[in-house]
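Quick one: co-fold with zinc ion.
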Amino acid sequence: MFITVAGVKKEVKDNLTVAQLVIDEKVETPQYVTVTINDEFVDSGSFESTVLKDGDIVEFLYFMGGGQ
Amino acid sequence: MAFTNEQIERYSRHIILKEVGAKGQKKLLDASILIIGAGGLGAPAAMYLAAAGVGTIGIADADEVDLSNLQRQIIHATKDVGKAKVLSAKETMEAMNPDVTVKTYRTFVTSENIMDLIKDYDFIIDGTDNFPAKFLINDACVMAKKPFSHAGIIRFQGQLMTYVPGKGPCYRCVFKNPPPKDAVPTCKQAGVIGAMGGVIGSLQAMEAVKYILGVGQLLTGYLLTYDALKMEFRKVKLPTKTDDCEVCGANPTITELIDYEQAECDGVGL
Ligand SMILES: [Zn+2]
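Sure, here it is.
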């Protein structure tokens, strides 16, 4: 199946979970990333149980703390 | 108030824009904007807002200028090392534009002082470098119904979003709670490329100016991300269903401001 991750369309295996996608995408500090699928937040406690579907649009929103 | 000849010349490139005009320039001169943090983000934001003729600019920061700040905090100069940042920032802004009144607050923001600080301003710019301050500014602006620009920068990356009361998600809608101390790099060890503050801080000034003028579309409901190495900007749409947000949602559980614990290396002039 195909999903779009951070604007890039890619082929992934069926039944991929958000938890596995976060690993595959080498997300830095994965426990603190905000994930949205099709413009809805994924609860941070449910990455394991959230299974992606064909055509899903996934975004990773990162904490960015610097400024000074 | 009529413009002086000098003002007509100074603001001529604004006045000629149909989105600004004399009326818009007057709005800017009558506006008040508070910048929290006189650092990498606050420096360019303050300078562009001063140059634009924003009539009242508040600047809050407790730190002094450090030599290691000068790689990116362009409002301060070598001669300012050791000086209070708010004072150095005020001198630069006043030298740029005598139309601007600069108010300085030599303090870090806390749950005790923030409501008082923001209450007289039309728009707030978050130029702080740590999550406790970012959440505090968000919650205070939500509670006081003040619009503000969030931004963060680290390494070769930056992000930006604009909160306007009633018009989209707040920072807490997206990021929920501050990460534990030191869990996410925010500190001086991570580093940041100097021009990143210029890019993102200037965008914050742009949002503030657009808000005051009432033109265009603000970054409400979106998070703009910038990756300098890929030279890529992305405008990521944020969820619209945010009624369960702890501070701006339908039944807020956060009704008092919180002072979160700061990471140890925060507040040392990153
Ligand atoms: Zn919210």
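If it helps, Chain A has one domain: 2-61.
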